[in-house]
Amino acid sequence: MCAAMLRRIHLWLKQAVLDVPEFAQAVPALREAVRLYQYGQYDACLSQVTSVGRTLEASRASYPGLPPL
Question: Which of 32, 37, 38, 44 gives the lowest tally of CB atoms within 10 Å of its CB?
Fold first, then answer.
């Protein structure tokens, strides 16, 4: 589940950051989630990636032209 969420957020962020460069601020937190996944800390990864997703989703509300996360 964590891997799927990481993939989805990564692909979304890759496109969204072109329109809203401020979204790049989420990259360090997403990298941390990847690191946690690589070390097999799946619960911590899921918590981290969920937090990133919620933050991006809340920010996305200000940009209605962006696709849903």
Answer: 38
Residue 17 lies in domain: 2-60
39-45 long-range contacts, CB within 8 A, separation 24+ = 42/2, 45/2, 45/6
Domain count, the chain: 1
| Predicted model pTM | 0.90
